[in-house]
Amino acid sequence: MVVGSVLVTGGTGYIGSFTALALLEADYKVVIVDNLYNSSEECINRLELISGKRPEYIQCDITDEAALDKVFEAHPDIDNVIHFAALKAVGESGEIPLEYYRVNVYGTLCLLKAMAKHNVTNIVFSSSATVYGDATRFPNMIPIPEDCPSGPTNPYGNTKATVEAMITDFINAQRNNAKKEGKSGEEWNGALLRYFNPAGAHPSGVMGEDPQGVPYNLLPLLAQVAVGKREKLLVFGDDYDSKDGTAIRDYIHILDLAEGHLVALNHLRSNHPGVRAWNLGTGRGSTVYDMIKAFSHAVGRELPYEVAPRRAGDVLNLTANATRANKELNWQTKHTLEEACEDLWRWTENNPQGYRQQPPKEFVEK
Ligand code: NAD
Ligand code: WQD
C-alpha cells in the first residue's frame, strides 16, 4: 500500500538518494527530479537493486519553472516535497555567490511557486548547521540548540538561511490565506532540517557518495587517500582549543540522517506543526584526529596526513544538541561512527570510480 507520494529534488545526490531509499522502504511513492549536476542516473538502478522498487526519475532543473510545472502536472498524486537540490561547496560559494543564490534561492522560489499552484502542502528542506556560523561565540550554546542565533559566515550559508526564511514566510502566508477563505490551512507545513556532518554509505557497498569533482569534505578526502588517489590528508589546523588541537564536528551516519527525513515528513503529515527547525546530529563531537584514527581502523592501515594551516572560515566546534528531534520526532541515531567508517570503506573499495562502474557481481547475484 502506498502511504503518500513525495517529490525528491536532488534525489540522485548523496543525502537525497539515501532519503529516497528510506521513503521507498516505508512505502512512499518517490518521484526524483535532478539535473545531474553533481550526481549520476546510475543511482536509480542502485536504489532499485537495494529496495526492489524503482523510483521515477525526471531530469529537470529546479530553476526551470515550466519544467517543474510539468512534473507536478504529470503527477497530481504528489502531496509532499523533500528539497535537496542545491549547490553546496562553501569555498566555491565565495567565488560565484550569484550562482549559489540562483540555484539555491531562486530554485527554491520556483519550487514553492509550483507547490502553491498545485496545492502540494508539505515541504522538508535540507538546511545545514552552517546557518549557525561560529556558535562558539555563545559558549553556553555548545552543543548547539535550534534557538542558537543564526549567523552564517559564507554565501552558501547565507543562501540556506535565506531559504529557511522564505519557506517560513511562504507556509505562514499559505496558512493565513487559507484561513481567510474559511479553511483551516493546517495542511501547510515545513520542516527545516539542519544537518551536521553526514558520513558513511549503504552497508551493502552499492550506494554511497559520488561527488563529480574534487571533494571538499573530510571523509571523501580520506577515502581518496585510502585508495591512493591522494598522497595524504592535510589536517587543517592542530592549534584549536580541543583535546588534540584539531576541530570538532558531529558526524552522523547517512542512514540515520535519511531516517530523520522520513520521520520529519511523517510528523508534518500527522501533527501539522507549521514551520519548525530540527537539528539532525548525534550530539557527539569527534576531532579530525579521531576521524583519521577511526577511518584508518576501518581500512586496516595507518593513513598518511600532514598538518597544514587552518582553513579559512572553519570553526572550532559544530556539535548538535539533537534533543528537539529526539523528543518531538521520536528520532534517535542508531549507527556508530565505526559503522560509518566501515560502510564508507566498503563503498569506496567496491566502487573506486563511484557510480561509473558496475555494482559488485556478488550483490547482483544475491
Ligand atoms: P549532492 O550534491 O550530492 O546533492 C545535491 C543534488 O542536487 C545533486 O544530485 C545535484 O545534481 C542536484 N542539483 C544541483 N543543482 C540542481 C538544479 N539546479 N536542479 C536540479 N538538481 C540540482 O549534495 P548532498 O550532500 O546530497 O546535499 C543535499 C542537500 O543537503 C543540499 O541542499 C546541501 O546543501 C544540504 N546539506 C549537505 C550537507 C553535506 O555535508 N553533504 C550538510 C548540510 C546540508
Ligand atoms: C570537517 C573537519 C576541517 C578537509 C562542511 C560545510 C557545512 C556542511 C558540512 C553543507 C573540519 C577538517 C577537512 C581536509 C581537514 N555542508 N578537514 N582536512 O567544514 O565541518 O562542514 O560540510 O551544509 O556547511 O561547511 O566539513 O568535512 O569539510 O570538514 O582537516 O582535507 O575536517 O577543517 O574541521 P565542515 P568538512
TrEMBL record:
<protein>
    <submittedName>
        <fullName>UDP-glucose-4-epimerase</fullName>
    </submittedName>
</protein>
